[in-house]
Amino acid sequence: MSELMQARSALETFLPPKISGNQDQKPGVVIEERPDICLLQMFARNNDPLQLANIMTQYLSLEKPLAPMAAASKNGLLICATGPLEYWVMGQKPDAIDALAQIQSKAEQSASIFDQSEGKLVLALTGAKAADILAKGTALDLHAKTLLAKGAAHTVIEHIPVLLTWQSPAGHYDLLIARSYAHSFMTWLCDAAREVGFVINISDRNTHTMANKND
């Protein structure tokens, strides 16, 4: 009997840089792969954003639709309005499976829905210097006082398309990158984080690499 195929990490063959340094120094950023994230991408049908927006508004129990670049949480899901016609829904397996199925059922008549769970590398960035590191690559102003507490936006970092979500003031960022760009993006990210120190946690591997400006 054939075995079920297991999803493999996009970073399975990525070799973090071997850099020596002061291991007692607290890293400025922690980079962690999140293989347990489910992703749904939704596009409003018939070029009509209102019906899908109303479904999301009702589901989130909001008084008005999410503005572009805004996000909100409910039932373990993060729902992101990334454009007038587009929403992304993120949830952590296995807890969010039922909630994802519920919102997919509500939206399937109003939106084209694509499961991107296996198509994206999801990286979580945390730490005191996470925003500073991202600022080296993105044109988004992550330090702006007007930045929403929870939000998401499409951006480009080192010529690589990225969907960036954030939750402040916690300083937590999730980056969604096409798997084919995984190695290129990680190479840039490690280089950008070198001066502040970083730790990498890759799923299913005991990879903990730290670099800092004292190396």
**The CATH homologous superfamily of the largest domain:** Probable tRNA modification gtpase trme, domain 1
| Beta fraction | 25-35%
Radius of gyration equals 18 Å
Q: Architecture of the largest domain, CATH level 2?
A: 2-Layer Sandwich
The strand line-up of the biggest sheet is 8-9-10-7-1-11
Helix percentage? 10-25%
End-to-end Cα distance, whole Å, is 52 Å
Order of helices and strands: EEHEEEHEEHEEEHE
Number of helices: 4
Structural class based on helices, strands and sheet pairing: alpha+beta
Count of individual domains? 2
Description:
A hairpin with a 4-residue loop joins strand 4 (about 75-80) and strand 5 (about 85-90). The protein is built from four helices and eleven strands, in the order E-E-H-E-E-E-H-E-E-H-E-E-E-H-E. The model has no long low-confidence stretch (mean pLDDT about 85). Helix content is about 20%, strand content about 30%. It has about 220 residues and is of the alpha+beta class. The strands form two sheets. The protein has a six-stranded mixed beta sheet with strand order 8-9-10-7-1-11. It folds into two domains: about 30-35 and about 120-200, Gyrase A, domain 2 (2-Layer Sandwich); about 35-115, Alpha-Beta Plaits (2-Layer Sandwich).
